[in-house]
Amino acid sequence: MYNKQAFIALYSILAKEVSRYFRIWVQTLLPPAITMTLYFVIFGQLIGSRIGDMDGVSYIEYITPGIIMMSVITNSYSNVVSSFFSAKFQRSIEEMLVSPVPTLFILMGYIFGGVSRGLLTGIIVTIVASQFVDFKIHSWPILFFVVTLTSMLFATGGLVNAIFAKKFDDISIVPTFILTPLTYLGGVFYSIKLLPEFWQNVSLGNPILYMVNAFRYGFLGFSDINITHALILISCFIIALLSLAYYLLQKGIGIRS
Amino acid sequence: MSTKAIEIHDLKKIYGGQFTALKGISFDVEEGDFLALLGPNGAGKSTTIGVICSLVNKTSGSVKVFGHSIDNELEAAKRCIGLVPQEFNFSQFETCLQIVVNQAGYYGVPRKLATQRAEVVLKQLSLWEKRNTPSRELSGGMKRRLMIARALIHEPKILILDEPTAGVDIEIRRSMWEFLTELNKQGTTIVLTTHYLEEAEQLCRRIAIINQGEIIENTSMKDIISRLDVETFVLDIDSMPEKFPEINSVTFRQRDDTSIEVDIPKGISLNLIFSWLSEQNIQVSSMRNKSNRLEELFVKLTENAA
Ligand SMILES: Nc1ncnc2c1ncn2[C@@H]1O[C@H](COP(=O)(O)OP(=O)(O)OP(=O)(O)O)[C@@H](O)[C@H]1O
Ligand SMILES: [Mg+2]
User: Fold this and answer.
1) What's the start-to-end Cα distance of chain A, in Å?
2) Positive or negative: CA dihedral A199, A204, A207, A213
3) Which of B72, B106, B150 to mutate to test the interface with A (most CBs of A within 10 A)?
4) Cα of B70 to ligand 1 centre, how many Å?
């Protein structure tokens, strides 16, 4: 039944999600603005001016796309992981489970909620960045496409994490031990061309590298890797994770006994 | 033939592949009925309700809600049910109004209509003044009422309440009873679990008793009351007689210096006891039922089965 009623349900989930992060904006929308300001001041202005150019643009300009992407990734992920886990923990998820919302729409509700926060954070950080850098945009469509797909991917990742999580610790393990290292090593702050060949190849195994580079391409028009490859790769990851999340929700893993 | 609101057949639930919570229970609830599902702690009441409302995956057996099987017509089944769970399950920071309106949304009720309905149910349950209060700031009794409001927002044909009056004060409990009776009169089928047998006796027309995952009784309230053959009264008296008389099969016991207990089989007139007492020149200052009769029968039934 993917009819009007299901879309009303989707709207309700989305409204709930959006009002959640707006209600706690001090924890959700403000921190990225502050962190990113620090990045720009320290890496961009103080240290950046000593580093000189990277790939032919000023260092601050080089790192801007990666920094925006970094906050999009963290916020998309953490929105869904905390919202879904707390719904599980407080059992308010039962409100949806007893109702006839199709699983696909519950999935979409949470993912779109995460994407909306990811994009909003992206916009906030971009506005902050524009105070420090004069950037030009090479391709709007690519920019928009990459940021949306990335946000979607990590929102889904957050959902899968939350489905498996049994205690609060479990929702910070993945961000701390996997997400943050991969992001820092994902070419946000440097071009992988600076690395020895061995480490260049290792870096190519890091999915975040593709997203950061594709996004940078949208801004600056160059990238360490092939854009088409990057988009295909991201899409494959999304399809895989979405299918997994759908399967888990449908089965009621972690939410139905 | 009347429609069945719920048909449960040979329902089994084994938790985690080890613990058998339901050993294959079967029972029906007729449309328009008011059923009390009773049983001691851990009997399997919430598990049964969980399966009906798809919060618990069944191990085997079948469940139909208004003819819709939860296996292949789950959505239609879900639309018929409103659930008031045993444990509070709100999102703590959402307000009463948000909770109720969002719940309506999950059932596909358009926002505008949902808001109108929310006003009606919140007023009915005396929560309208609290509409903008986050759920965690409500008292226990208010939370219970909010769960009822939330369960009714999509106008379900059957309302299932898992211990709705736990921790609710007497006044609100009585108003809840009135509310539920009225709702039932207007055609909503109601199933409720409770540990207050007085409540079950007052409200319900049918009674099902579940013990250790098995249905041990499923009958009308009338029938079960008629089976209570002996009633025990406590009499407060001003002096103790030397010895007790032999009156039919009435038994007397001394409780303390100023009160006695009398077991009186059905059909025996209380006058017999009073006239004997006045012959002895003993004044009865007050009299009461020893305890809820249903409670005793309940204990007997669940003990036997164990
Ligand atoms: N998620 C679960 N995992 C394992 N066992 C469970 C689970 N939920 C309930 N049980 C067990 O199943 C049995 C029935 O529990 P249930 O909650 O249905 O009882 P109940 O009749 O509702 O009791 P109460 O009156 O205390 O609410 C209990 O022994 C309980 O320990
Ligand atoms: Mg229970």
Assistant:
1) 25
2) positive
3) B106
4) 21
Q: Could you report the per-residue pLDDT of B129-167, keeping only the tens digit for each?
A: 999 999 999 999 999 999 999 999 999 999 999 999 988
What is the number of residues in chain A? Answer: 257
Q: How far apart are CA B304 and CA B306, in angstroms?
A: 5
Q: pTM, whole model, 2 decimals?
A: 0.88
Residue pair A48/A129 in contact (Cβ under 8 Å)? The answer is no
Give phi and psi for A96, each to the nearest 5. Answer: -80, -35
Q: Which of 3.30.450.20, 1.10.3720.10, 3.40.50.300, 3.30.2130.30 is the CATH number of B4-91+156-226?
A: 3.40.50.300
What's the distance, CA A37 to chain centroid? 19
Q: Do A19 and B85 touch (CB under 8 A)?
A: no
Placement of tokens 């909010």 in the chain: B146
For strand B158-162 and strand B189-193, is the pairing parallel, antiparallel, or unpaired? parallel
CA atoms within 13 A on the CB side of B259: 14
Q: Tell me what ipTM this predicted complex has.
A: 0.89
Are B4 and B67 a contacting pair, CB within 8 Å? yes
The total of other beta-carbon atoms located within 10 Å of residue B218's CB is 17
Q: Could you tell me the CATH superfamily of domain B230-305?
A: Alpha-L RNA-binding motif (3.30.70.1560)
